[in-house]
Amino acid sequence: MSWAQILVLAVAAVIVFWMVGAYNRLVALRAAIGAAWLIVAEALARRGAAARVLAEALRAPMADEARALDALLAAQAQVQEAAEALAVRPVRLDATLALVKGEAAMGAAASRVLALLDQQPLLKAEPAIAEQAALLGDSASRLAFARQLFNDAGAAYDEAAAQFPTRLLLRLYRFEPAGRL
């Protein structure tokens, strides 16, 4: 075997090992996005449960505000649908955009229901309603933390994918950019 052949084989081996390493790094970073998504999904589930229980508890005493309660439940259903789609593949950009849209609707609906509840101090003083309202209100900070973890994991993945020469492999392995919440 000539020196030229050995050199070509050595260069080919380096390229193959680099490709395997780059692939493994991107897969590990995608797995980190999946782990961060589990934290977001748990926070969304807790908030969703609190929203449903609160809406049902307020259904009779706030019958004149049924539209606000229905809007809260509809927004929660929209968030849940988007979350289920994102759970399948947490890197999908279109699914994260759908969740962001649902989150905006949920935030507006929850703010409206909590504002209406603040106008009725006797109703808000009931322990069951107060507990669910507190859970719904406190979920914002938990979700903000979980979203930040998810966004940081997505940023690390996108940064690694954008580096040269790793970005040359994106099409080969069909990696997509990560979405942000």
UniProtKB/TrEMBL annotation:
It comes from the Bacteria. InterPro entries: LemA-like_dom_sf, MamQ_LemA. It is a single-pass membrane protein. It is found in: Membrane. Belongs to the LemA family. PANTHER family: PROTEIN LEMA. Keywords: Membrane, Transmembrane, Transmembrane helix. It comes from Rubrivivax gelatinosus. The keyword Cell inner membrane does not apply. This is LemA family protein.
